## 1
Amino acid sequence: QYLKNKCGNVAMMTGLMVIVIFVVGGGAVDFIRMTTARAEMQAAVDSAVLAAASLTNDRPPIAVANDYFEKNFDGSRFDLENVSFNPVIEQNKAFLKEVRATATADMRTYFIGLLDILTGGGDNSLKTLALEISGKAAESEQFLEIALVLDVSGSMAGARISNLQTAGEDFI
């Protein structure tokens, strides 16, 4: 009698599908949050390395990079944990400065973490998603060839030639 009764199948299937729809829809929300956090973190890293690589900057490049990243990125908006920023400066010569930086963070998930009930969590827990961003910028000046033509004829005798020598040394 009970095996032949088909009433209530819609309710049972709806109950099972609500869970699937909730996890898939919630997963989309977590994915969008992660993508937005990644984009904002990348923009902050890019601005930090560009500012630190500037040859016209008088401040220490590490301080500039840290300052730009800190002011351009707010991880609390995305529930990020363990946010770290690591700039590396290479100044090969007076005319070249290269800045590389990596930023990492862990983003807590709202919905995808519910799948840990099915998977058991452990080392492959979905309660957090790792973000890792990198950026690189370099600024250099090219060598310029300058020719300096000086008049050393007889008309430059006396104080004029000594003034010319002083001006030439100051120019160099």
## 2
Amino acid sequence: MSVQNRFDSPRARLLLGFFVPLAIACLIYFLDYLEGPRTAFAGAVTSVGFMAAIFAGPRATAAVVILVEIGAFAYGLSSEDSGTIRQDVRLFLIALSGLAAVIYSSVRVKREDEREALTNSKLELETTSKLALFDQLTGIYNRRGVIEALEIEDRWPRSVAILDLDKLKHINDSLGHSAGDDFIQIVAQRIQRAVSAKDIVGRWGGDEFIVVLPLAEAQALKVITRVIGQVSSEPIASGNVVIEPRLSAGVSAWTRTDTLEHTLVLADAALYEAKRVGGNQALASAVNAA
């Protein structure tokens, strides 16, 4: 725990904003008493309220100020200035400084509350923004997150791969959607681990994933083939059931003159062909290959 956090705790504020100032006031009165008493405490004791105001809220500060004022009045009764104008002036000055301390405490607490509210708003906004860009099940980009990531991506050449889980419907129907969700989540994690940090990975649909690679199509096909091999190399355990992960992929080059939508059509066609010929493999776009 940091020093600031220790000072911000309720216990620390109570100690530093209430008990310590009162203890200091008592010490001032005691030292003055040892000297006469000469009632020379007024100048020093006016600072006690501000000591409280640094840490305490306005109510606690007011309580300290009131107790200090009562203490000054009671202590003044034992001095030769009791009942004189000088004693009244001392009490007035202590009360006036106490009022200023309470006002300062109120302003400080209000500003702290405003800063805390602003910080909380920023955190909520960051959380909301993250939820808007990331898939809640897998933790990778969702469709919107991929598109926003592509808006700041300017590396060429590049290729787009669409990966689709083979037989997810069979898993959902036979094992339940919970097992299907576990399957999707683990496959997403494996895909993300298998590609480079510079690649954009996202969940494009229910059982579809997209990977945008800053590579030419031939190189991207090799990477995605390796990804499929790594994903399917180890079975996935869901409860008491072991699932053999399989996925197919279509890869298409994305040129500067083509739109993402056009490139996705080509990648989807390659994905369909990969599934048609048996699945668990990646194929490049026939259009680009031609």
## 3
Amino acid sequence: MNEVKRMHRKKSLRSKMELQYMTLLIPALILFTIGIMVPIFLCVYYSFTEWDGFSKYIHFVGFSNFTESFRDPGIKSAWSFTLVFAFVNAAITDVAALLFAVLLDKAIKGIRIYRALFFIPCLFSSIVTGFVWNKIYSVMLPDICARLHLDWNVQLLGSADTVIAGLTIANVWQWSGLWMMIYLAALQSIPTEYYEAARIDGANSLQRFFRITLPLLMPAITTCTIGLTTGALKTYDILVTSTQGGPGRASTSIIYYLYTAIFEHKQYGYGSAIAVNLIILLLLIAIFQLKLFKKKEVQL
């Protein structure tokens, strides 16, 4: 009888704890639903309509917004820039962050200061970063070249051929420190016994990196690569103060194009259809990368 009462008390206590946990989750769930899920559902709904965002009358047009989005030459150039910039930026930032993490994972004097210096740029907003690098390319570097009598074209944001390179440099400068910290945390979680055993077996630094460090870093690589790629596909802020989508439309990202369609041309339905296309692409890329990298992950 006592055993039955004891079991009943445990179940009652467990039920009360679960209820408390659910109570704590409710505010976050409400915010998530209002801030993310409801806008996504509304976006999908408006993508099948023709609406200017202000009128009381919403005209249902079916899939015409989606078919138009595949024929629009402006959106094709926006997709082209977005995809090229996203994968170039993700690849370079990922490699740079991993390299910096390996270099700063050392017990040397002042190492915390060096880590802080690499991390500080990500504390600036992308709006500020775009403004600063625009001034660097258009004012600071040309003045330095003129003083050194160098005939170099350093105004990278002023040409359609070099604008991706200029934006990538600015973006890598801003975000490599953030992803470096993730790699640093992963590096410091690798047991030192593995390296000691490898040294005893005669493995050099490169062999230890490729056979121990890299395989054990795969979970962090998965996180960083997906975050970098999806983040670059949503590039907008840095363009506002650096290029404004120019020169011409050379740096008009899909988000910038979407913003223009909705707020300048009052094509709310068409802009929503572009947003739905972007959401689907982000999901597909994230799922593909997740499956690709998960196969290579090694558990400790």
